[in-house]
Amino acid sequence: CTQDEDCFDGDSCTEDTCNAGQCNNTLKNDCFTLSAPVCVGTCWIPRGLMFDISTMSNNILLHGLSFRMYSSSGDVSSNVTVYTAPGAYGDIYNDPDSWKEIHSTQIVTKAWSYVSLDFKGVAINSKSTQALYVSSSTSDSFIASKESENPVASDANLNIHTPARYVFGPFGDGTSEPNGESISWEGNITYSLQASCSQDSDCSDENSCTVDRCDLSSGTCHNSMLSNCCGNDVCEVNEEECNADCGPWNLDAPLCNTYGNGKCYTPKGMMFDVTATVGISMLGISIIHNKGTNINVDFYTVQGSFDDLYLDPLSWDFLGSWSTVSLDQTRWLSIPIRQTEIQAGSTQSFYIVTSSSVTSSENDGGIFCGGLPADVVADEQIEIRSPARVFPNSEPFSDPSYDRYSFQGGIKYRATAVSEPTPSPSDMSTMSPTLNPTLIRSLRPSISAQPSTGISSHPSSQPSRDPSSQPSSRPSISTVPSSMENFDPSSQPSSQPSLSDQPSSIPSSSSESSISTGPSSDPSGHPSVSDLPTSQPPSQPSTHPSTIIRTSDAPSASSMPTKKNSEVPTTQSPFSAPIPVKWFMDWDILSCRQHCNGNLPCGGKPELVELYD
């Protein structure tokens, strides 16, 4: 782009600017655009066009229209005027006094280019119909489409209806169906919402499948579609009997003729593709069959397009046959086939081949096709694609074959019930917990960023992998001892002494106030160390002399004589004072040792070492 005008996208709800050679189309705030389908193939070019729009739960303010114009000279130069009237145009199309002019401007542009008209807002109340009329002052014409489905376009607030009225001049004579064809508005309508409610009851759209709510902050209505409701345009589980959501439906291709899309042909075979935008089940195929005798029609299918498989019979599945003894004239035949599933976004190819007895008529027994690729044949769920490939011979998958033809007939199908959960969680969390618990437990435990507020009815089967981020307000109470020792001592003594077959690794902080009632069942791994003598004699004699010698108040009497002689004879009576103990410094170990025989702390005194008391 070199200027902002180069960036116009035909949408009055966007701000179109050119910046450093790049177009930016920025959506304006609080502005909506509803677009009617663009015509493909044959388009109508009326000088004037009347059509109706209708609102739903909200009041709207109409801001503008955008559309395309045509001129046989290539350049459009015309004065375009827009009129409006409340209600439908049907009774006032030739009554100028019923219409109000809302915009008029001179248009100079290229043929087939978009024209945008922005005008002062036109207020339209909720749940009402408004007629619009766009007129050209010259022979330069508007471009209109062929659409039979009503409405041709809709959103949550607005509908664009068909048929439109083809008008030859300002409020002059016209016809709503030129050449028997329904026509419709092709272009965009821009609008914004106006305050339209003060309570929920003001927002009723008379649809039992919506929740109608009034947003009091803006005064606008919101109609949210419910799930699992017959009439919400979604085929859901257990809704197979809901025809409004699940079908069946029929999609028929336009009939060939001797003009327009070309004359009709009657080959013996035809391949065509069907693409689904939602999951569907094909139930039947309609064809136009020429007269003949001993007629047999076979149906085949293959996943994907026929383009690379039309001569590969091993890739195709046989769907079934239909036969009759004779057809005395050309007939439309609706033939059921074996149900064929097509996934959303997928393409399935179908092949029809017919055979019949040879008669005098060259075209007897064939199936109809169009001579040129047809316009797009589609609804909101499937599309019959073009071109088709035709076969002049009755032998299946035989050359020669030709493309650039169009399918003639129809498709019968139904939607596949949606049974799978959504592939990802919703963008917004629910405002409150569900009123009732789920009927089926989840396969995995839920993960929460916050601790639970209540106590679980059962202990967990596994310890937690990570410690809690905050200490608990109260200690936990357990009837079973823990399998792991505490790193810190408890703040209160236990109610019962612990039982252990091993001595504790750390001495108790205070001595026992009472003597145990009986000896321990097993000897300790190490002797205990005490500054006080035991109150009872040991059951076995000690293997080493005591390291501390104390006087007794009375001589001890041994129940048995000693088994060994003393290593040193007694020099004094056992009732006299103890022999003084001498110490010396052992510089090899930097420690004091007793001058005595035996293990540490005894040791023989080295020479030249002084003894100390």
Give the topology, please.
Blueprint: E1 14-19, E2 22-27, E3 32-35, E4 48-55, E5 59-70, E6 75-86, E7 100-110, E8 114-124, E9 129-136, E10 141-142, E11 153-154, E12 158-160, E13 165-167, E14 174-175, E15 187-194, E16 210-215, E17 220-225, H1 243-246, E18 249-252, E19 264-265, E20 269-276, E21 280-289, E22 292-303, E23 317-327, E24 331-342, E25 347-355, E26 369-370, E27 377-378, E28 382-384, E29 388-391, E30 402-407, E31 409-415, E32 583-586, E33 591-595, E34 602-603
Total helical elements: 1
Supply the helix-strand structural class.
mainly beta
Distance between the termini: 111 Å
Low-confidence stretches: 422-432, 438-447, 510-514, 570-577
Mean pLDDT: 75
